[in-house]
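Training component of the fellowship. As part of building independent skills, the fellow (R.M.) carried out the full modelling exercise for a liganded target. The chosen ligand was 1,3-dihydroxyacetonephosphate. The inputs are recorded below so that the supervisory panel can assess the work.
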Amino acid sequence: MRKIVAANWKMNLRRESAATLAGALAGDLRQLWLFPAAVHLNSVRLQLSDTKILLGAQDLSVHKDGAHTGDISAEMLKDCGCEMVIIGHSERRQGYNEGSDVLLRKLVRACSAGLRPLFCVGESKAERDSGQANAVVESQLLILKRLAPEARAMVAAVAYEPVWAIGTGVNATLAQIEEMHAVVARKLGGIGMHATPILYGGSVTPENARELLASRAVDGVLVGGASLNYDALSRIDDCAKAQEIAPRGVSAQLEPAPPPEALALLFERDTDDFNIEVKVKPAAPAAIVAEVPATPPSDGALSRYEQEMGLRKPPTQPLPRTSQGRLQPVAPTSQGKLPPVRPVSQGSVPVAGDISRKATAPLPTPAPAKPTTPVAPKAPSEAPTAEVKPEAPGAKTDKPEKPDTSKNSGPAKKSNIYDDTDRPSWV
Ligand code: 13P
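Fellow's submitted model of the complex:
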């Protein structure tokens, strides 16, 4: 299983430059995880059919469907060809106050739609300076404990991204990364996630990628700014290609994820400490048999994901797939007025820097490094139990229940962010 290179394009690029960059990387037969902005998912997807590049989204809604203006649901992303989604990125934790309550909902929504979460953790500068880095990261990982083992097995990777290293041009030292990855590995091992890859993110460049990716503690990298540049991302991927992920525990093999049909997730109150446990409803035996892969899984992580995802039926409106399980090429004209982005033919490798000549508009270069604003020290705020509101024990249901207002047994509704149709029973 080769090391992973994931590209988080954040809020960058335009439709044509995103498609051109994706097409060039696909033409080089790269094996990457690409996370374009949501509006570019479709144009990027059109470049990726029959490639080993996996498509992911940068965020998803906590809601399943309905009147949530501006939100994009897990099932919509899946329907758009996404196989993964980033959850817990510090830019959302800090910029949108996403705490463990919101993140848990997102994890559950993703898993139940068959999207594999890429879960991010990382401490701020102030937290590191006050000696709390380990405690903060450990508490951020606690949320995974609240998922059922089947949902944990769907986590594509955990990315350690120290906030102070993101976009600053100052990456963590290898010693710091190895120490923190050991913390993450210990925590993941404690909940049966021995095989979940651990990525590093924060000012990864072609210059530091070789050293980072040579470490046994680093299973891959999550790249921001440098991933917007064809040449830089290609050079980072070249460093990863040569490296194998080192097995970390007895159970080094990632369990195949259950099919979405089996992931009718239930919320249930834990009577001891009010933690939420996400239970997986067992699928009917016939459905499980139907979903067992007929061919043995291959060695590579990417192709294993492809195999699993190819065998899985999207919840709604499945996209046409090839016999290998990849998305069928879709003629751009049938999808509307996609501008003519010329796909790079297989085997034709663009020379370094060549991509800017293929695009109508030149690709933007990574934003210049700028220091992060110092954040006032604070105690770890991710303790999951703190944000979960208990309610009177009730019977398990497939659907989140409406609160029984007549009994007034639960806490008062805090805001109007949850609607009646998808409110979990523990809210
Ligand atoms: P930079 O590589 O730009 O520091 O961003 C890292 C990141 O946040 C990836 O998710």
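The panel noted the following from the submitted structure. Strands lie at 4-8, 33-35, 54-57, 84-87, 116-121, 157-160, 198-201, 220-223, 265-269, 276-280. The longest strand covers residues 116-121.
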